[in-house]
Amino acid sequence: MGGVSDVIESKPWGSVEHLVGPVAARVVDQDAVVDKMQLMPGGYSSLHLHKTRANLFILISGRLDVIEYVRQSTGERPGEGLTAEQLSEFLEADAKRLDAWREVGRSALSNRGDSVTVPPNKAHRFEVLEPSVLLEVYWSTTAEPVDSQDTHRFWSNGRQV
User: Fold this and answer.
1) Are 128 and 42 in contact (CB under 8 A)?
2) I want to staple 121 with a disulfide (CB 3.0 to 4.6 A). Which of 59, 79, 125, 139 is the partner?
3) Rg of the Cα trace of the chain?
């Protein structure tokens, strides 16, 4: 069984501690992974999506926004209806351009226990508004185990000070 990790991964926006491994938590009848994220104000994640993985963000303390984007040209989620090859072509050609995206939703997490679920193929990122602690639960939406490499990044992460 998974448990609290000794490894804390540093990020420009804070850090991630892997709390529970893929066999220890069960969410919607799927194996899940739970991470504890320490977030610094001004931090932001990359704009990214997961093809087969869903995310649940649960606020412990602080305040942040989780933002959803669609393709500017079509209004579609970027991974929707695309083969792996077509997604790769989109990633290479257009995805890194800021004008390729349009914000379509913003979920404000500001009270302990506030949460948002991000389904597969939904391009998203977060912006940290004040020091925050967040639990991230993610699981596979297929019969396959959680794929830790299922992150397709469009913009980089960082921190504005």
Assistant:
1) yes
2) 79
3) 15
